[in-house]
Amino acid sequence: MSTHAWINLAYLVAAMLFIVAFKLMTGPRTATRGNFLGAAGMAIALAAACFEQPVTESLAAHGAWPLVLLGIAAVIGSAIGGVMAVKYPMTGMPQMVALLNGFGGAASALVAGAELWNMTASAAHGDATRAALAHGELAPWTQFIIATALTGLIGAVTFWGSLVAFAKLEELPRFKKAWTDPVRHWVNLGLAGLTAALGIGLCVFPASNLLFWALVIAASALGCTLTLPIGGADMPVVICLLNSYSGLAAAAAGFVIDNSVLVIAGSLVGASGLILTAIMCQAMNRSLVGVLFGGLGTTTAANADDVYAGKVKSASAEEIAMVLEGAQRVVIVPGYGLAVAQAQHAVRELASALEKRGATVEYAIHPVAGRMPGHMNVLLAEADIPYEKLREMDDINPTFPETDVAIVVGANDVVNPAARTDPKSPIAGMPILDVDKARTVVVVKRSLSPGFAGIPNPLFAADNTLMYFADGKKAILDLTAALEKG
Amino acid sequence: MVVITVMPLLAEAVAAEDPAGRFIRLLTVFLLAMWVGFEVITKVPQRLHTPLTSGSNAVSGITAVGAIVATGALATRFGSLLGFLAVVLAMINVVGGFVVTHRMLGMFNPKKK
């Protein structure tokens, strides 16, 4: 068997390992094994790449140089990636994932740029290209150049979109407010048109590196202007979409270099990101187009004063502790506020105190709670809360009528009953956690300020609701202390 | 399912094709892999969506294969420089993605005491 065949066999094994890795992602225990298999697949593919003909030829011509260069690059990249992965706090996972998405996209765009440069710069290839063009034999080039243009486009959009998403998630001051000026639609349209024109131009003049880099620059600007208008709470959708793009960029790069393992791995990731995007949109009852271009628009919801006037009951830690003392079943509903306040460990202690008194405690997780899919699960898992106690929305909703106390920590819109009751509400029809059906609802929140939808929440004014105004972490610690005293 | 996806890969080792045939083969691989992806990933529970995102992230670092070839070939200086940067970025993606996924999944599994 030729070396080429062996390399392809190695790629084949890697591709199968990736598929198995995704398949094992159904439970936490098997997922750990899956992750190892995925990493093994990657190691095999990368090792095989070092035996590709261009590399071995260059090894013969230049000695060990290419390997030294590759070694240095791999060590730098692995060191940065490893340190990031170990040091980044769990609350910062959305940012870290955003950054990694961006790097993947950028790498694919650079691969396409390097391939185009190498193809056109070497005299032999340049002549071959010109000859092919002269004879109208464009076939081998058509795939290459279209794929190159697509890779540059998707890669650049992914990279800059991810950087903006990162800045928003880190809440850097300049990026705190979404860009809502209506002119953004024209800017986006203009940039999209320019990018398309440059892409077509590159296909007509396939040997033009200049056009490629102009395309990359235009796509970079487009990546920024597409992401800047998107608000913080829509971040789960953006993260999923960028994740999908980084995969599609890799798949497109596979078409550039004629490599099936890139196409397979890239499309797996692309599919995964698209599914998550769809799930997130569904959980917010919004269309993808609405998230990307809509902004939130004006609300027709009830006035906050009418909803809250005189009906909001604020309670002290002692009063709430008294309610909790008699509770048999308690459900904790975490939201982004829990992540901000880093209250996950405090919540665990409260749950332990309640369990010591004989109550059962479970956690209700809304699909879009937090800033990325599954965000809350990771935070609660970090605080050693057993996986089995984290319940998904459809699973736990029927149990709220039998729940004595529901404790809402830093969540707002995902527990707003207006989604069920008020057809005119901007969130009408959005699936929510039915906490209002619990006997008593305790809402831990800093103020009555609205959530991302910008609307008042009738839950806060309901008869069975007690508001506890405080920072999430401090509030939970005080509740625990009051409970243990009493 | 796995077998269907990898068939075209095997075919690649057997015969050299004309460019159009090669494109069709890659397109086949692309569409089948997308389909396999949809089938497999819809079964991942919501609780594991964050590790799924970071894990799939690591897999998208596969573009490092292309970067390695572009760098290692040392065909042109500029091409190798771009390849070098691509290897660095892709390796951040690969190592960062797999390690952070492992760290996260470790938290989901009850610790031995």
Total strands of chain B: the figure is 0
Order of strands across the biggest sheet of chain A?
3-2-1-4-5-6
**Spans of chain B of 5+ residues with little confidence (pLDDT < 50)?**
none
Most extensive interface, residues per chain? A-B, 130 and 94 residues
Radius of gyration of chain A: 27 Å
Shape of chain B: flat
Overview features:
heterodimer, A: 486 residues, alpha/beta, Rossmann fold, 2 domains, 6-stranded parallel beta sheet, 6% strand, elongated, B: 113 residues, mainly alpha, 5 helices, flat
Description:
The complex is a heterodimer of chains A (486) and B (113). Chain A has 486 residues and is an alpha/beta fold. Chain A folds into two domains: 98-298, no CATH class; 304-485, 3-Layer(aba) Sandwich (Rossmann fold). Chain A has 20 helices and six strands. Chain A has helices at 3-23, 28-49, 53-62, 65-87, 93-121, 123-134, 139-169, 183-204, 209-227, 235-257, 260-283, 288-294, 304-308, 317-325, 336-341, 344-356, 375-382, 393-396, 418-421, 472-485, and strands at 329-334, 360-365, 390-392, 405-409, 440-445, 465-469. In chain A, helix 5 crosses helix 6 (123-134) and helix 16 packs parallel to helix 20. Helices cover 78% and strands 0% of the residues of chain B. The mean pLDDT of chain B is 84. Chains A and B meet through helix 1, helix 2, helix 3, helix 4 and helix 5 of A and helix 1, helix 2, helix 3, helix 4 and helix 5 of B.
